[in-house]
Request: fold
Amino acid sequence: MKKCLNYKIREIRVRNNLTIQQMASSLEIAASTLGMYERGMRKPDIAVMARIAKMLNVDIKYFYEEDFEIDEIASNIEYLQDSKLVDEARRRANGFCELCEARAPFILDNGEPYLEVFHIKSRGYNNETNEIVLLCPNCNKKVEIIKNPGDINYLLRKVRKNTKDG
Reply:
């Protein structure tokens, strides 16, 4: 019998003797959000699924076996951000766009400021490490479409300065 994504999340959480609250806290999401994932009322995005897989020490493919989404996951896996780098970017940005420095445009249900992840290396810019920044939707689109080298260099300097300082 084919198991759905929501069932697999719950099954592996229970197998690891974790409550919804414990797992949600570790993932830095609301317990109600995790509950909705487990009931199939909401679907976690690939970044959240990567954090769940890492936390529970399973391959992310476990959640998508026999699922029609496996092709989508396989094609997008190269863009999957390392959750540690995203967490570092969240701390660095502190709720502000790293390019225009404006406050995030709104707050999500889980209390997090809404900023979009921009993965510089995955966009083909010439750098030797994975650099992740958080941008407001306008700046994210601007950097994605216009590809202004000045913006990219500014963001790279900001990340690298923070890495040296931190």
Notes: Residues 81-165 form one domain. Residues 67-75, 77-81, 122-128 have pLDDT under 50 and may be disordered. The beta strands are 116-119, 132-135.
